[in-house]
Every structure is written in C-alpha cells, then in structure tokens.
Amino acid sequence: MVYDVIIIGSGPSALTAAIYTTRASLKTLVIAGIKWGGQLMLTTAVDNYPGFAQGIQGPDLMLAMRKQAERFRAEFVDEDFSEGDFSQKPFRIRAGEKTFEGKSVIIATGADTKWLNIPGEKEKIGKGVSSCAPCDAFFFKNKKTIVVGGGDSAMEEALVLANLADSVTVVHRSETLRASQIMQDRAKKNPKIKFLFNTEVVKILGDEKVTGVELRNNKTNEVSKMDLDGVFVAIGHVPNTMKFKGIDLDEKGYIKVKDHTRTNIEGVFVAGDVHDSHYRQAVTAAGYGCMAALETEHWLRGQE
Amino acid sequence: MADKNFTDQNFQDEVIKSDTPALVDFWAPWCAPCRIVSPIIEELAKEYEGKLKVGKVNVDENPNSASRFGIMSIPSILIFRNGEPVKTMIGAQSKENYKKTIQEVLGG
Predict the structure, then answer these.
(1) How many angstroms separate the CA atoms of B24 and B13, rounded?
(2) Active site annotation includes A136
(3) What is the pLDDT of residue A62?
(4) Active site residue B31
(5) Which pLDDT value is given to residue A304?
(6) Same-domain pairing of A124 and A229
(7) A62, A81, B9, B72: which could form a disulfide with A139 (CB 3.0–4.6 Å)?
(8) Is A124 a residue whose pLDDT tops 70?
(9) Element (H, E) at A265
(10) What mean pLDDT value characterizes chain A?
(11) Is the minimum CB–CB distance between A166 and chain B shorter than 8 Å?
C-alpha cells in the first residue's frame, strides 16, 4: 500500500501536520519513533501554548495531540525511522524492520539534546548525568546538582530540581544568561539556585556514578573540582538530520527550507525544529506542521 | 494484567529468590517515557510467561528497591538471574531491543 503522506516525527509539528492531512482525507502514516512525543515529553508545565489558561503538562499535551490525530485515523508506527530513499517515487521510508511507501513525505524529526561531549559524560547518562529534570529529579532528593546551560530549558531544569535537590548550581559558559526574563527572574528568586558564570564543565568524575565535576573558569583558566551527585545538561539541541540522504542541509546542519515548507526534493516537505533554528517553540512547530500539511495537500492534488 | 507489582516488601521473595529470571521495570506515574514503556512490558509479560517473571516497581512507593540498585533515571529495566542484576537498560527502548536482551539472558 502506498500512503499519500508519510510524516516522520511525533512532536507538535508532526502531529499537527497529521491532523491536517487526515482531515484532508489523505492516507497518513506517522513514523512516531520509540520515544514518541518529542521534546515536550521531557518537560513539566507548558505555560505558553495558547488555549490552556492554567498551563498544561507537556506529556499531556502530546498525548492529546496524538489522540486528536488518531481520531482522524492517522496510522502510527512506534519504531525509529532508520533511512529514507528519496531518489525514486514513491518514496521509501524504513522504520524498525519495515519499509513504507509514500507519495509525499513531511520531515518533522525535531531536535534532540545536545550533550557536552566531555570525558565521563556518555557512560554516566542515567547514572547521574541527565537531560530531563522532570524525569529524574526525584532521584536527587537532598543531593547536590548542577545544571549546565543558560537558556530557558536550563532555567526550567534548575527550577524543577530546586523542588527536591539540596542545591542547584547553574553553570554557564558566558557572562549573561540567554533565558527569557521571566525564567531568569524565577530562577534567580529561588534561594536554592546559585549561578556560576564564565565556567565550563570539562570532565565528569566518578566510576559507577557521578561523584563530581571538573570546572574551568574560561576567564582565568582556573580549574576547580566540585563534589556533586547530578549533572543536568541543557545547552541546547541538535537537529535530527543525520539520516536524510539527498536532502540538503544548511551550514548549521538544519534542513534547508525554501518557500517555507519545501526541501530540495519535490514532494518532500519539512516542518518544525528540524529546519527552524530560530523560534523553536511548540506553537511555532505546530504552525509549521500545519503549513507543511497544506502545501503537501496542494502538491498532491497537483500530481493527480 | 500479566505483569506483577514488585514492592520493597516482596522484592526479596519475588525477584531475588525467583527460580526463573525476572525482568523489573522501575517506573513512576509522573514519568512520561515510562508511559511509553508500560504497554510494551505488559506484552513481554504475556509473551514470556513461564520463562521470565515480569513486573514493575513504582519508585515513589518503593524507594528502597530503587536505591538498592542505584536507579537514577527511569524507566530503567533490569533483568535479574539468580538474584543478581545481569542486564540494565536505561531509557525507553524498542520492544525488539528488550526481546534481544531477554533472549541473551534466557539463552545463556
């Protein structure tokens, strides 16, 4: 069977696209991935998605979006996308052990946690190194933690940790935070949260689990050690573009977009954080998903 | 439900002293990725019935079991054989991955 559209991804852009394509009577398959739902699955309260006056939990929002897409009969595959052949039509998309065929494709794979790539990090993910305070803060009750980063997500991680941890230090490599004023204010007001500026984490210490970090002040080059139990990494995201052979990327590694939703290959559209390095909001991702779906529909109708 | 609830009280008897290997899913209600894994674990419980004891530990209610095995991130899936954890899988993974790991334990 050939689908009218295969959507790769399952965050706000992918699911919004699926709602639009199914409602346009296009046979739609969503390659959702094993850890479906995207970045919002790793958050707590989302206060800037319109329509929820009291805010909504990120995972609840994603579950609702998925149910909405399923209500209009989008099909879901909870397997990871592995490769796509965009050189012939229909396009062939592999996920898990299966290959699916689609007349059109919307790439909405979003972006993943950017890790520090320093010694001691990778092998201690889940052993004191984490990128998800809402998931893991519980295990750091009365413990010492740091959050690496200076943006909104770093502030959120710090605030979540502050509810449980004994101490939270935000370690940021430059002199000023990138986070929005409201998030900075919240974090700075919290008595448990401290800040270390101009400081980089160079090494994560510990054998079985995290016991400390080595820090370097990038102004003075002074190296110091800090004993702690948890390192939460929130330095940004990298777009999930590695597996798209034949699709043009820009100089930063994001999918190159033209006319708002198109890639270099006709019939392959793109939406959300995988091409957007600028806004990166749930609501903009959803908007991009809608745009890509409408353009896909338009393009498919033109092919008939 | 084919999967069991392991607790701080019954962990010793149900898991450590189990004759068959045991798969333990450490989870909590507030953990979104755990919700993704739960249905997979229930399926595995049915598929491996008799060969593998499958159950969940709610870490909120059973902090001792979680800390005893150094759980610092959930979902964490541990497989025990002869009272020892022989496999650890951290974070949501595919059913195929879980099956492969289970097979390594049951086959070996």
Answers:
(1) 13
(2) yes
(3) 94
(4) yes
(5) 82
(6) yes
(7) B72
(8) yes
(9) none
(10) 95
(11) no
Determine contact: A58 vs chain B, CB below 8 A: yes
Max distance between CA atoms of chain B, in angstroms, equals 35
A135 noted as active-site residue: yes
**Domain at A213, CATH number:** 3.50.50.60
- Residue in this structure with the two tokens 């996308």, named with its chain if needed: A81
Instruction: State both tokens at A238.
Output: 């990298």
Is the omega angle on the peptide bond into residue B85 within 30 degrees of 0, that is, cis?
no
Name the residue among A37, A126, A140 with its Cβ closest to that of B32: A37
Contact residues on chain A for B93, CB-CB shorter than 8 A: 34
pLDDT beyond 80 at B2: no
Domain end, chosen from A171, A204, A233, is at A233
What does the mean pLDDT of chain B come to?
A: 92
Report the SS3 class of residue B50: coil
What's phi and psi for A78, nearest 5 deg? -90, 55
Q: What is the pLDDT of residue B108?
A: 56
Least confident of A30-34, A43-47, A56-60: A43-47
Rounded Cα–Cα distance for residues A115 and A217 (Å): 20
Is pLDDT at A28 greater than 80 in this prediction?
yes
A255 and A179 part of one domain: no
Nearest 5°: the CA angle B102, A95, B75 is 45
**Record: contact A80-B94, CB cut-off 8 A:** yes
Q: Confirm if A283 and A48 have CB atoms less than 8 A apart.
A: yes
Which of A233, A268, A289 is at the close of a domain?
A: A233
Instruction: Judge: B33–A208 Cβ closer than 8 Å, yes or no.
Output: no
Question: Using CA atoms, how far apart are residues A181 and A199, in angstroms rounded to an integer?
Answer: 21
pLDDT tens by residue, B69-96: 999 999 999 999 999 999 999 888 888 8
Over residues A252-266, the pLDDT tens digits come to 999 999 999 999 999
Mean pLDDT value across residues A56-71: 94
Both tokens of residue A212? Answer: 């400390």
Q: How many helices (H) and strands (E) does chain A have?
A: 6, 19
Catalytic residue among B15, B34, B45, B74: B34
Tokens of A151: 């943006």
Model confidence, pTM: 0.83
Residues A227 and A257 reside in one and the same domain: no
3-class state of residue A84 by DSSP? strand
